[in-house]
């Protein structure tokens, strides 16, 4: 918005009515803040607006003072209002609670009724609100969906004149937001035109988010620069003698100890500090270390119960704890009192995230927000420096709006039928496409969605009349799907030793990670998984008493680093390298870095280790270096997570098809790491990058996705939102998910699952652009048969084998080699006097006892001494009887099938029963034998904590 819209020197508060001005004076509001000065005039004039300003600058009052003023004036003019005049929509229930507390004072002063409604509101209170609607209702997007279906509430909502959407950036990039935009169009059908106001601390593309908010009906944008109000420091702690001592106490290495000590020092230097981390697991891991040091700090993240979160929020607000260790759960402005300082542990990955988090500090007009980013490795430091620079320049990432999400269309078609009972398909289509994310939805896409809903009995479709009608299943579907948040199960974590629940785990965690023997951290303590009970949705655990040497196996999904940040990191590295090449010392280059960025010489010097030690061609934003050694290939590609993930999948699929073997892939924002079959080199990778048609990227990626668990998992979630599955249970195994994929191919459900994976995890247009730039010479490629310092600097993440159909030669060879190298305990069950542990490859084709010559030899786990003792025991209890029977069954298999039985029994989780099934199958080659073993091993890893 231009400055000209506010008359110079005019107090924005003067635009408000007498009643509101009197309340302002009583509240002590003497002069408006910058966003209030600029935004109140157009809001008083009734315009739609998007207000972007740092936390603590009075955004809530900026929006609500004109709204409350309008409600008061309208009531005075009409002699009373019988419905809801204004909705205040927030993405979190906790924010609802805060907003009600903040607005109640104004309501009392202006004689307005302000209330809150969300999923936890009691039935009695909901009935009261329907019978006697409040003037202002604070609610969530999902509760608005439910309200639109209520007969009395629809009457109350027909009086709505204003809708305020708080934290609009959070909703703009989610399906919840896409659903809300259609919900607002449904509200428009009830109430006619209403004023729309969006609030946020960070928006990278205000014009686009304004269109998202208003349905492209025009929007005044008021933006106050957040970057100029930041005091940032990027710090890699120097290891001190104290850290060496702490390392032993914390059972970690001195580097990690230095991170914990540095954060502790910052907390002790301030009255109230938020310590942000990027994953819940990091929060738990750090929390356990702070617990050892008796630091007065609470833990706050989404896996904790609501009661636990409220308790720690209240304790922090009251000052009984000095700091909160938190994830994104505290990003969105939940009121926890005044915050002095914010610590971000490791790079925040995104500019928007840094601004949201550090913006929590300094909740006063005259205080700049201050923050410290504690970094852990050179990549981390360069990334944090680039993000800090972009934050201070106000270069925020654009919102990643879900355009045309078909399951949201399905959800809202059912909602429209709840509104109208029946309506013409054309009218439903027109209402939907008024919402900005669905403006390009084609009529054919809409028809396919409606046909799918009809087949799933969510609605009745009269094809000839082109008319939609509510069916018996519409009501149940709508109330089961008020939210577009995926319906994932929550597994209870049950401590078998103490006989109590200790927390919860998300279904995605359980499906992809939770196998017996794995270790994770929750509530600051370390736990080992003993059993996963899918029927009861329970993960049984035991505490790890001595965690020394234990490393949690799961670190959580990384926040993706955007393309522009990765490009800035590459450019910064290249500028530093130029100074080294010009003869400058590392100390001199570090001093130069400190002049350009908010850091110190030690941090800068540590970040420069890779660049200073780099031999060979330097990867830059425009020059890609492909390095290889043995079966390892690294493409130094500074394109961010999503582009690199796309290019990595593309290369893995193409090289896999070409070689007939699987290709291992790992990416970070600056590298694509491949584990290739013997005979594939970096030159082959260069050939694929140079020779692949950019126009074919999306099709090739879609083809490769059919073997990826990510698509199968997403497909089940989308199918639920279409009413095709009553409830998705991910634990049913990959076989069930694969069958689901085949059954739903060529449906809008499949199309949406692919779209969502491409939207959230990949960037096909970005990858296509990289290949185009390579073809046109804007990006150059170079291959070197060596490893470099920068190439070796990647951080490992989850590795996924991306295999084309039947291209599993290398996987089978790996399984074969692993089992042959494993050890087994051989035990004679005839004389019961002989046992020996040896490698599988050294076992004879027909094992026999050297003591008695019998071939009745059991092959057991090398640690199964108790089984041998049971076999030899003359007086057995029930457990020893079971173990003896097991040994005899194993011995019978070895006697009949020789070494083949030993191999099967040596596999992980393959007991005598399953080994017999594997051996009994007729096969044309040995590879199929190992494939069956691998299948059973995977089934065991997901479902069993014991041998059958």
Task: Please tell me about this protein's structure.
This protein is α/β, with parallel strands linked by helices. It has 7 domains: 223 residues, Rossmann fold (3-Layer(aba) Sandwich); 164 residues, Rossmann fold, CATH 3.40.50; 75 residues, Arc Repressor Mutant, subunit A, CATH 1.10.10.10; 54 residues, no CATH class; 49 residues, no CATH class; 185 residues, no CATH class; 132 residues, no CATH class. Helices cover 47% and strands 16% of the residues. It has 38 helices and 30 strands. The strands form 6 sheets. A 7-stranded parallel sheet has the order 3-4-2-5-6-1-7, with helices on both faces. A 6-stranded parallel sheet has the order 8-13-12-9-11-10, sandwiched between helices. Strands 26-22-23-25-24-27 form a 6-stranded mixed sheet, covered by helices on one side. α15 links the parallel β12 and β13. α16 crosses α24. The protein is globular. The termini are far apart. The relative contact order is 0.06. The N terminus and C terminus are likely disordered.
Helices, strands, pairings?
Elements: H1 18-27, H2 34-44, E1 49-52, H3 59-78, E2 86-89, H4 93-110, E3 114-117, H5 123-131, E4 136-139, H6 141-147, H7 151-157, E5 162-165, H8 168-172, H9 175-191, E6 195-200, H10 206-214, E7 220-223, E8 230-235, H11 241-250, H12 254-268, E9 273-276, H13 280-292, E10 297-300, H14 306-318, E11 323-326, E12 341-345, H15 351-358, E13 369-374, H16 378-392, H17 406-420, E14 422-424, H18 425-434, H19 443-455, E15 459-462, E16 467-470, H20 472-480, E17 490-495, E18 500-506, H21 507-512, E19 519-522, E20 525-533, E21 538-543, H22 563-581, H23 586-596, H24 601-607, H25 609-612, E22 623-629, E23 632-636, H26 640-659, E24 663-668, E25 671-675, H27 682-691, H28 697-705, H29 709-721, H30 734-744, H31 748-760, H32 764-775, E26 780-784, E27 800-802, H33 809-821, E28 823-828, E29 835-839, E30 857-860, H34 865-872, H35 878-897, H36 899-906, H37 912-920, H38 926-943
Parallel strand pairs: 1-6, 1-7, 2-4, 2-5, 3-4, 5-6, 8-13, 9-11, 9-12, 10-11, 12-13, 17-21, 22-26
Antiparallel strand pairs: 14-16, 15-16, 17-18, 19-20, 20-21, 22-23, 23-25, 24-25, 24-27, 28-29, 28-30
Helix pairs in contact: 2-3, 6-9, 9-17, 9-18, 11-12, 15-16, 16-22, 16-24, 17-19, 17-20, 22-26, 23-24, 26-28, 29-30, 29-31, 33-38, 34-35, 35-36, 35-37, 36-37, 37-38
């Amino acid at each position: 918005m231009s400055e000209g819209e506010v008359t110079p020197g005019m107090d924005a508060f003067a635009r408000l009515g007498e009643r509101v001005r009197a309340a302002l004076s009583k509240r002590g509001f003497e002069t408006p803040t910058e966003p209030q000065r600029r935004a109140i005039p157009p809001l008083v004039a009734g315009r739609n607006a998007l207000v972007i300003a740092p936390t603590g600058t009075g955004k809530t009052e900026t929006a609500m003072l004109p709204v409350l003023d309008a409600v008061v004036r309208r009531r005075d003019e009409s002699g009373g209002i019988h419905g809801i005049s204004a909705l205040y929509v927030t993405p979190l229930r906790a924010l609802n609670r805060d907003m009600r507390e903040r607005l109640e004072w104004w309501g009392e002063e202006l004689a307005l009724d302000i209330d809150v409604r969300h999923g936890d509101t009691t039935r009695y209170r909901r009935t009261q609100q329907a019978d006697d609607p409040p003037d202002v209702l604070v609610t969530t997007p999902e509760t608005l969906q439910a309200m639109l279906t209520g007969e009395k509430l629809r009457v109350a909502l027909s009086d709505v004149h204003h809708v305020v959407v708080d934290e609009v950036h959070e909703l703009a990039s989610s399906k919840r937001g896409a659903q809300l935009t259609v919900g607002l169009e449904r509200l428009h059908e009830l109430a006619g035109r209403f004023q729309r106001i969006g609030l946020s601390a960070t928006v990278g593309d205000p014009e686009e988010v304004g269109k998202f908010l208003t349905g492209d009906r025009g929007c005044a944008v008021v933006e106050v620069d957040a970057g100029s109000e930041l005091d940032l420091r990027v710090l890699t702690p120097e290891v001190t003698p104290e850290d060496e001592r702490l390392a032993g106490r914390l059972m970690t290495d001195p580097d990690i100890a230095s991170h914990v000590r540095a954060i502790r020092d910052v907390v002790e230097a301030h009255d109230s500090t938020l310590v942000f981390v990027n994953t819940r697991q990091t929060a738990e891991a750090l929390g356990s270390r702070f617990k050892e040091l008796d630091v007065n700090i609470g833990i706050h993240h989404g896996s904790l119960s609501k009661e636990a979160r409220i308790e720690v929020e209240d304790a922090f607000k009251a000052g009984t704890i000095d700091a909160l260790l938190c994830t994104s759960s505290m990003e969105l402005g939940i009121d926890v009192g005044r915050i002095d300082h914010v610590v971000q542990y490791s790079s925040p990955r995104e500019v928007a995230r840094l601004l949201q988090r550090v913006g929590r500090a300094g909740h006063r007009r005259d205080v700049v927000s201050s923050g410290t980013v504690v970094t852990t490795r050179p990549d981390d430091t360069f990334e944090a420096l680039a993000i800090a620079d972009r934050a201070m320049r106000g270069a925020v990432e654009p919102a990643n709006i879900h355009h045309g999400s078909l399951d949201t269309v399905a959800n809202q078609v059912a909602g429209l039928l709840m509104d109208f009972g029946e309506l013409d398909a054309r009218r439903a289509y027109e209402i939907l496409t008024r919402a900005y994310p669905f403006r390009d939805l084609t009529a054919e896409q809409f028809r396919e969605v409606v046909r799918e809903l009809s087949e799933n009995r969510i609605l009745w479709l009269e094809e000839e009349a082109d008319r939609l009608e509510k069916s018996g299943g519409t009501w149940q579907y709508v109330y089961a799907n008020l939210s577009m948040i995926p319906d994932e199960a929550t597994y209870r974590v049950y401590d078998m030793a103490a006989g109590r629940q200790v927390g919860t785990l998300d279904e995605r965690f359980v499906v992809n990670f939770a196998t017996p023997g794995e270790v994770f951290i929750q509530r600051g303590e370390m736990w080992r998984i003993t059993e996963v009970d899918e029927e009861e949705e329970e993960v049984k655990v035991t505490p790890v008493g001595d965690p020394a040497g234990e490393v949690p196996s799961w670190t959580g999904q990384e926040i993706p680093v955007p393309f522009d940040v990765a490009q800035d990191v590459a450019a910064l590295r290249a500028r530093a390298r130029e100074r080294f090449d010009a003869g400058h010392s590392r100390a001199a280059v570090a001093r130069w870095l400190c002049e350009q960025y908010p850091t110190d010489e030690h941090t800068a010097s540590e970040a420069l280790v890779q660049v200073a030690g780099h031999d060979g061609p330097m990867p830059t934003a425009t020059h890609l270096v492909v390095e290889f050694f043995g079966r390892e290939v690294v493409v130094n590609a500074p394109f961010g997570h999503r582009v690199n993930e796309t290019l990595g999948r593309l290369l893995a699929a193409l090289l896999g098809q070409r070689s007939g073997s699987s290709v291992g892939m790992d990416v970070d924002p600056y590298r694509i790491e491949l584990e290739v079959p013997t005979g594939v080199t970096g030159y082959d990778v260069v050939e694929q990058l140079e020779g692949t048609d950019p126009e074919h990227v999306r099709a090739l990626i879609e083809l490769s996705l059919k073997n990826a668990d990510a698509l199968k998992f997403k497909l089940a979630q989308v199918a639920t939102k279409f009413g095709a599955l009553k409830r998705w249970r991910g634990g049913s195994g990959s076989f069930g998910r694969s069958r689901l994929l085949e059954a739903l191919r060529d449906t809008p459900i499949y199309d949406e699952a692919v779209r969502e994976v491409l939207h959230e995890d990949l960037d096909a247009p970005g990858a296509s652009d990289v290949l185009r730039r390579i073809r046109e010479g804007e990006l150059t490629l170079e291959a070197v048969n060596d490893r470099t310092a920068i190439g070796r600097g990647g951080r490992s993440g989850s590795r996924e084998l991306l295999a084309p159909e039947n291209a599993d030669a290398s996987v089978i060879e790996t399984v074969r080699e692993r089992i042959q190298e494993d050890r087994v305990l051989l035990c004679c069950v005839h004389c019961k006097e002989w046992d020996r542990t040896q490698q599988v490859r050294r076992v004879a084709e027909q094992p026999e006892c050297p003591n008695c010559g019998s071939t009745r030899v059991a092959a057991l786990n090398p640690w199964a001494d108790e089984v041998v003792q049971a076999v030899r025991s003359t007086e057995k209890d029930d457990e020893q009887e079971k173990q003896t029977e097991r040994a005899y069954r194993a011995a019978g298999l070895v006697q009949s099938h020789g070494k083949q039985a030993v191999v099967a029994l040596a596999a992980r989780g393959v007991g005598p029963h399953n080994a017999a099934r594997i051996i009994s199958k007729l096969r044309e080659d040995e590879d199929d034998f190992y494939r069956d073993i691998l299948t059973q091993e995977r089934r065991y890893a997901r479902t069993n904590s014991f041998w059958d």
